[in-house]
Amino acid sequence: MHTLTKHKSKTWAALILSGMLLFTMNTTSYAAASTESMPKPAWTSSSLMLSEANTEKDVLIKGIHAVPSKNLVYVHASQPVTKTSSKTTLDWQLDSLQAFDATTGQLKWNTIFHEKSGPYTTYSDSIYASNGTAYVYMEYSDKTKKVYSFNTSGKTNWVKTVNSPSSISLLDNDTLMVASSQGVQSNGSVRSAISLYDKKGKLITEKTIDGAVLKADNGRIVVDASKQNKVGNFWQPAANPKVEIYDRTLNRLSFYQFPANANTQGDGGGESLAILDDGSIIMRANFENTGNRLMGFGTDGKLAWGRAIAGDAYIQTAGNGYTVLTGQKLELYTLKGKVTERTFKDAQPALMHVDQTQDGQYQLDFAKTGYILDPLTLEDVHIYTTSASVPSLEGVSTYVDDVIYSMNDETLSKYILKSNPAK
What we know:
With about 425 residues, the protein is an all-beta fold. Helices cover about 5% and strands about 50% of the residues. The chain has a five-stranded mixed β-sheet, with no helix packed on it. Strands 21, 23, 24, 25 and 26 form a five-stranded antiparallel β-sheet that branches. A five-stranded mixed β-sheet has the order 22-27-28-29-30, with no helix packed on it.
């Protein structure tokens, strides 16, 4: 089993019109890729199943991350722990970070986030710098919360204890952000303590702000500064939030109040909020009577345009662009306008997923056919189909540099695709 994110109408008309301007680019293109069946695995790892505790026979994969420069592949795995007491209300997990040799598939090292008779994890997350440094956040059954930094040899660079539930993000390759919050207060307000650390774990700066962090990346932090609404016994974020945008110095660049007829919760698929490489931002909302729109915020944090999209459109970003997949039509845009489009006429209607690959390309997996696409042109880099070795493209995987690493039950396999040189 595998499991794995009151403008006037004239103003809107102007924004939509500006968003429809066409834009062309000169890019390096790939030779037409030929379709290939998924090959036999170059290797398959030993089982990721741990025996250090009384766990259920499921491996839940939190993520796979390859580090080609270090010849390493990380797998963050979790196993449900069998509860021994009816008084236990939390979902206990046995988390591990396992590192495999990318050439041989041999396990190089394994960190288990549990000591004998010690607490189990109840929530976890992990992110990775380009040099292979792994940052892991753990919440434990004894209510402690910790952030870990590991080097590629499995040694701990540093560990920090945090007092409140937190999220971790990389603002850039050398700056880790930890955002902690005590939760919603009785009046619906939320306060977040933001701390920035360098790669050595030294505190760069910290600040407490009003609101909850929605996303942080590429030197920008997007915050929902609205009060939440209580529905029954639960607090819910405002459907039309006041969004504030901060830079890497924790200086607020701008804010935008979504109009009363907007709803940023739900609708469509893919990324509802994304930060592009240059620090610009896109955010999705549904407007009563007019439907779904993408909102574009420039590098200064200010609203630049709005673009109408279908309610079932799937959004995915890469680099300084983004794609809109509607049915079998895939459109590529930058914040300046539309670049190109293509139609997958021969693709199965069952879409498994659309992702940005580790090396910044687009990956689309349908039921039996997968594509790796150039992020500037949407031209094929790879086309691969299911085979006897890989009967399904569904599952947890990652792609980088002509290689797919994918889970098969409780093991990891490496698949090498045929390289396709640029023209």
